[in-house]
């Protein structure tokens, strides 16, 4: 007969270190969101995305990321990618659009969204994905770190993989408004106060160097902004003349104080609503 005290200790340890999560049925969807407490992958039946053909003004980044993703989907070598730059210029939209296009062409590629605050759990997620017979794009949107943020250490588990190495069936795509993933003033503050300034921020700044692809997104011109809107109108069958759209769209940017792909979409949503079209 066992010792009751030992039995209670064993039960407590099992609760603290639960058995590994079984590999989920990835055939039920092409997209998933990682959640913790408890760990699980939630299938996403309808991904919020636009058609790849509607993304205007990012042709070079689009073509580079598409080829990289296609290589990976085919089972070949590919690079982790950091999409950085201006807000609202389609960084996250491009990742989702490329995934949707490749899935539509018959490539069995999955996408898993990982929230920045859940980065410390990424090793558990990678162990699950490693055992699955699919290829995964691990997508972390709006990624950035402050000077005292330790989550960046967890990011290295994805980029470098530790002793096991990054699973060959997993690729990381991250978006950020910052090229080096942390604010410039934080970098300068640490340089000015450190005993060895060059080493003080090297570990954090070098995070972006661990991405094989850096794709920059810059503010769009007025012509590109209007081209986006005209493309949306053609795709959804809105026949308002271009002169009217041009005048309204330019006024819309003036009221918003900015011009981007997001602002173009917001104007189009207003235009579609006025024309009785559901998007």
Outline the structure in words.
This protein is an alpha/beta fold and 279 residues long. 43% of the residues lie in helices and 14% in strands. The chain contains eleven helices and seven strands. It has a seven-stranded mixed beta sheet. Strand 1 and strand 2 form a beta hairpin. The radius of gyration is 22 Å and the shape is elongated. The chain starts with a helix and ends in a 5-residue tail after the last helix. The model has no long low-confidence stretch (mean pLDDT 84).
From the N-terminal CA to the C-terminal CA, the straight-line distance is 67 Å
CA radius of gyration is 22 Å
Q: Which CATH top level class of the largest domain fits? A: Alpha Beta
State the shape. elongated
- Assembly type of the shown chains? single chain
Named CATH architecture of the largest domain: 3-Layer(aba) Sandwich
CATH topology of the largest domain: Rossmann fold
Largest beta sheet: strand ordering: 2-1-4-5-6-3-7
Secondary-structure class: alpha/beta
CATH homologous superfamily designation of the largest domain? P-loop containing nucleotide triphosphate hydrolases
The structural domain count equals 2
Portion of residues in helices?
A: 40-55%
Biggest sheet overview: 7 strands, mixed
- Integer average pLDDT: 84
Number of helices, counting only DSSP H or I runs of 4 residues or more: 11
- In N-to-C order, the SSE pattern is HEEHEHEHEHEHHHEHHH
Spans of at least 5 consecutive residues whose pLDDT stays below 50 are none
């Amino acid at each position: 007969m066992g010792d009751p005290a030992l039995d209670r200790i064993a039960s407590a340890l099992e609760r603290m270190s639960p058995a590994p999560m079984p590999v989920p049925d990835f055939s039920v969807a092409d997209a998933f969101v990682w959640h913790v407490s408890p760990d699980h992958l939630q299938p996403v039946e309808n991904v919020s995305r636009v058609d790849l053909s509607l993304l205007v003004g990012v042709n070079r980044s689009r073509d580079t990321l598409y080829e990289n993703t296609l290589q990976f989907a085919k089972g070949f070598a590919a690079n982790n990618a950091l999409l950085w730059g201006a807000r609202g210029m389609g960084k996250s939209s491009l990742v989702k659009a490329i995934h949707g296009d490749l899935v539509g062409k018959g490539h069995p590629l999955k996408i898993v969204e990982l929230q920045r605050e859940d980065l410390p759990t990424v090793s558990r997620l990678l162990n699950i994905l490693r055992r699955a017979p699919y290829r995964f794009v691990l997508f972390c949107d709006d990624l950035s770190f402050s000077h005292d943020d330790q989550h960046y250490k967890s990011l290295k588990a994805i980029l470098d993989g530790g002793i096991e190495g990054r699973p060959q069936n997993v690729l990381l795509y991250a978006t950020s408004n910052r090229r080096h993933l942390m604010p410039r003033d934080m970098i300068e503050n640490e340089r000015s106060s450190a005993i060895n300034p060059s080493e003080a921020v090297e570990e954090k700044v070098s995070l972006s160097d661990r991405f094989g692809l850096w794709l920059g997104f810059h503010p769009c011109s007025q012509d590109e902004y209007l081209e986006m809107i005209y493309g949306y109108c053609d795709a959804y069958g809105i026949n308002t003349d271009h002169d009217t759209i041009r005048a309204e769209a330019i006024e819309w940017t003036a009221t918003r104080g900015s011009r981007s792909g997001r602002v173009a979409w917001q104007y189009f949503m207003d235009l579609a609503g006025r024309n009785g079209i559901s998007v």
